[in-house]
Fold:
Amino acid sequence: DAMVIQNPRYQVTQFGKPVTLSCSQTLNHNVMYWYQQKSSQAPKLLFHYYDKDFNNEADTPDNFQSRRPNTSFCFLDIRSPGLGDAAMYLCATSRDRTRAETQYFGPGTRLLVL
Amino acid sequence: AQKITQTQPGMFVQEKEAVTLDCTYDTSDQSYGLFWYKQPSSGEMIFLIYQGSYDEQNATEGRYSLNFQKARKSANLVISASQLGDSAMYFCAMSTISNFGNEKLTFGTGTRLTIIP
Structure:
């Protein structure tokens, strides 16, 4: 089945130690998104790629970076994780970037910062 | 600015009963999309149903239907014959285009639904 895959499902890192979360998709979708979701809150969009075009949200901290080496893969890099970065990180994809396009989410990666 | 409001933080419903989850939205755009997602405790966001702003008929997907009232700016999710597996967090979301031409999904704060046996 076509799907969005995130690895690992759980990630533990130390305060200030760089960490990378990965996302892959077999849907061949043009757009890939990264969301941060803290406990009992709605997902918050960090940034997205439209093909190779990177689009950052205005309030996304510089500590968060992303790479999309090809259509299938997208990475979220947290350069110096703080305690406040502990959250669920959700990757999503959509075929195109119009209002009618559904975003399909992966299972998420729960990040714990010690 | 776009905004989604879900006024029910939690709901308890008896198994096999129908349940309505409320969602109201605010936007100045004429064209937008409305989505409902289900998030079980495992964390994955599962797409349930979509309604376009120009769609004249209410969307339905199996046991899920969307009661779309455009003039009232509401997009309530109706789940018929609820099941224990329906226990989850439910998010209403709206898709609009930002000033930079980017499609942006704005989520509500969610409703936690618990189905009672």
Q: What stands out?
A: Chain A has no helices and eleven strands. The CA atoms of residues 18 and 79 of chain A lie 5 Å apart.
